[in-house]
Amino acid sequence: MTTSQRAHTWQDIQDRIRANIQQRVWLPGELIPGEVALAEQFGCARTTVNRALRELASTGIIDRKRKAGTRVALQPIRRVSASIPVIRTQVEAQQLSYSFKLIKYQLVVPPDNIKQLLQIKANCKSLHVHTVHFSDNAPFIYEDRWVNTQTIGDIKKVDLNEISANEWLVQHVPFTKGEFVVEACLAKASVAKALQVDVKTPLLRSTRTTWLEKESVTMVKLHYLPGHQMRFEI
Amino acid sequence: MTTSQRAHTWQDIQDRIRANIQQRVWLPGELIPGEVALAEQFGCARTTVNRALRELASTGIIDRKRKAGTRVALQPIRRVSASIPVIRTQVEAQQLSYSFKLIKYQLVVPPDNIKQLLQIKANCKSLHVHTVHFSDNAPFIYEDRWVNTQTIGDIKKVDLNEISANEWLVQHVPFTKGEFVVEACLAKASVAKALQVDVKTPLLRSTRTTWLEKESVTMVKLHYLPGHQMRFEI
DNA sequence: AAGTGGTCTAGACCACTGA
DNA sequence: CAGTGGTCTAGACCACTTT
Q1: Which of A47, A138, A183, B154 is 20 to 30 Å from the Cα of B141, by its Cα?
Q2: Hey, are the CB atoms on B180 and A233 less than 8 Å from each other?
Q3: pLDDT (average), residues A84-98
Q4: What is the pLDDT of chain B when averaged over all its residues?
Q5: Are residues B135 and B92 in the same domain?
Q6: Which of residues 160-189 of B touch strand D (CB under 7 A)?
């Protein structure tokens, strides 16, 4: 019995509710008391109970529906999350020196798949950039990026040898939503060469696409050095 | 101008604040007005502004500190998140039939690396299980799992041919925290055979370790079929 | 139609932390 | 020490959904 006896912070209320679920007082699928009832039971305001329940629902432990009430999730869907920092910061956090090299810079009409993905109008040129990121002078990440210059015209004025597209975009272009896909792949010749590894080495690839309201911003494929681990918290 | 002119929901307030940041009215690193000032400016209660700012902070767009105030993040650290469902649910969500096959079940003293990872005492047997999960009768995921039977003794009574360890644990054992690591690897012979792919195929591997308070629960390595994508939202 | 969660408000006190 | 965010309260109204 380490929990404080009569604390009214929403976290304490949340702990008490979670305990009821973990100790199977309330079984999966079962309806739990309403907010007003819990507030009375815990001796706090309904607002506080609401906060506790709302955050529990966001972790997937409970399901809430108006009128239907709150139920212990039948299939607790766990949410994992991680922060995605700028690559430079990611390297420097390990006390290593960071550098990068721009190896391709083109303003071209993108191929059809990119056009479709970023919803770029026909015959509109976009910025295509390849960058290698180094950690302590060793290749670390290979970056293949398309930037929608209709949305982000300013980037054409930037010297991407001085600041990486990754960092410039993060600092100058907020986005409203995005998608992040992770998969395993074999290194293609060009990527393998840039990362100084054998062809057919298994690599972790992340593909991120971001949007500013209805307009696409950028699509970037990152190939990580073999053995790289992407870490999440549950 | 699609946003409603004078709505006082916290989301509307949040949109207005986000707009100020995205339109560079408030620059990165800059102090933004305090909650009371914003509440007055937007004509709403401070609580509402607080909610809006709190959720913005959780996405990494702003940094908040007591007394120091709220600043636009200099290096916006984006958080990605995804839900991790039970494998059966994951398959069935695609309208495919799910099945699994238990191919190894052993109660043994784990090797040192597992002992250390799960903090299992010397010479204590743990449960080691290998399972192949099928999507529409084709191998989908290869699962290699250790369960700490000191923490979860009940699982020894379960027939893991009837319900997968994955599903039983999710339904019966809540956990308090966990770690989730994703990496690329080459299929070893045993995994390749089970997934019916060539040796040296690049696979996505996720390793999850979960804890119930201070006690380890389970460590599970999942090898996904080649081409599998793990998707996150930003 | 009614019950439940979702949210807003106004006011208050607290906790942290920078000056 | 003083200012800022963090939270609690009590009451109210609203929105969604199931009955």
Answers
A1: B154
A2: yes
A3: 92
A4: 92
A5: yes
A6: none
Calculate mean pLDDT across residues B178-194. 95
Q: Is the pLDDT of residue A146 over 60?
A: yes
- Confirm whether B187 is domain-assigned: yes
The CA distance from A6 to the nearest CA of chain B, in Å, is: 22
Put simply, the answer to whether B183 touches A229 (Cβ < 8 Å) is yes
Q: Give the burial class of B95: count Cβ atoms within 10 A of its Cβ; 0-12 exposed, 13-18 middle, 19 or more buried.
A: exposed
The more confident residue out of A81 and B64 is B64
Distance of A14 CA from D10 C1′ (whole Å) = 21
Q: Is residue B82 part of a domain?
A: no
Measure Cα distances from A195 to A86, A129, A179, A190, A199 in Å.
19, 16, 25, 9, 10
Q: Is A225 on the interface with B (CB under 8 A)?
A: no
Instruction: Spell out which residues of A between 13 and 32 contact strand D, using CB within 7 Å.
Output: 13
Element (H, E) at B65: strand B62-65
Are B45 and B103 in a shared domain? Answer: no
Which CATH number covers residue B44? 1.10.10.10
Inter-chain Cβ pairs, chain A and chain B, closer than 8 A: 152
The residue out of A72, A100, A125 marking a domain boundary is A72
CATH number at residue A162: 3.40.1410.10
Q: Do B182 and A204 touch (CB under 8 A)?
A: yes
Residues of A in contact with B60 (CB under 8 A): 83
d(CA A93, CA A89): 6
- The shortest C-alpha distance from B134 to chain A (Å) reads 19
CB contact B53 to A (< 8 Å): no
Q: Give yes or no for residue B141 having a pLDDT over 70.
A: yes
What pLDDT digit, counting tens, does each position of A52-78 carry? Answer: 999 999 988 999 999 999 999 987 777
- B3, amino acid identity: T
The type of residue at B223 is H
Contact B185 A184 (CB under 8 A): yes
CB A90 within 8 Å of CB A121: no
Q: Which of residues 188-207 of B touch A (CB under 8 A)?
A: 200, 202-205
* Residue A62 lies in domain: 10-72
State how far the Cα of A161 lies from the Cα of A101, in Å rounded to an integer.
7
